[in-house]
């Protein structure tokens, strides 16, 4: 989660909402991602999607068996769907997302009867992850 938080901070420095993601397999980081929606002008450029894409390229397939995802913010519906589809086994997330969280806060897509059910645990480094987000938005409000 520390590496994901560093990626989130890097995203913030680049003017992106500070979300970072890391995919681990057998104790080794195999892929990372950070938000790039503003830079890429693309709604699909979430940290989790970038990390999943990079992991698929590294492992040579769309399934990510024995993989765990660490992400600083609870996944949205799009990212939760990508996690299910890529067969990631476990998700660890930091801060809850009361506006778009689709693992616990608004809905739990992982509990629906899809063909794959990832395990999920929230609250990992929750204060640090939430602080990165609140600091980013406070600075954004000051600019306006």
Order of helices and strands: HEEHHEHEEH
Helix % is 25-40%
Treating each run of at least 4 consecutive H or I residues as one helix, how many helices? 5
Low-pLDDT runs of 5+ residues are: none
- Biggest β-sheet: count, sense, barrel? 5 strands, mixed
**Mean of all residue-level pLDDT scores:** 97
Topology:
Layout: H1 2-13, E1 20-25, E2 28-34, H2 37-40, H3 47-59, E3 67-73, H4 77-86, E4 90-95, E5 119-121, H5 126-143
Parallel strand pairs: 3-4, 4-5
Antiparallel strand pairs: 1-2, 1-3
Helix pairs in contact: 1-5, 3-4
Task: Name its key features.
about 140 residues; alpha/beta; 5 helices; about 40% helix
Brief sketch in words of this structure:
With about 140 residues, this protein is an alpha/beta fold. The protein contains five helices and five strands; from the N terminus they run αββααβαββα. The longest helix has 18 residues, at about 125-144.
């Amino acid at each position: 989660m520390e590496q994901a938080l560093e990626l989130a901070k890097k995203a913030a420095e680049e003017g992106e909402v500070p979300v970072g993601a890391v995919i681990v397999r057998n104790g080794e980081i195999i892929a990372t991602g950070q938000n790039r929606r503003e830079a890429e002008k693309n709604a699909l450029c979430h940290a989790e999607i970038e990390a999943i894409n990079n992991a698929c390229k590294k492992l040579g397939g769309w399934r990510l068996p024995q993989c765990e995802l660490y992400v600083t913010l609870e996944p949205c519906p799009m990212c939760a769907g990508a996690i299910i589809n890529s067969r990631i086994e476990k998700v660890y997330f930091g801060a809850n997302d009361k506006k778009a969280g689709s693992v616990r806060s608004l809905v739990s897509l992982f509990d629906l009867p899809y063909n794959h059910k990832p395990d999920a645990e929230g609250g990992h480094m929750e204060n640090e992850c939430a602080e990165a987000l609140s600091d980013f938005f406070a600075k954004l409000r000051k600019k306006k």
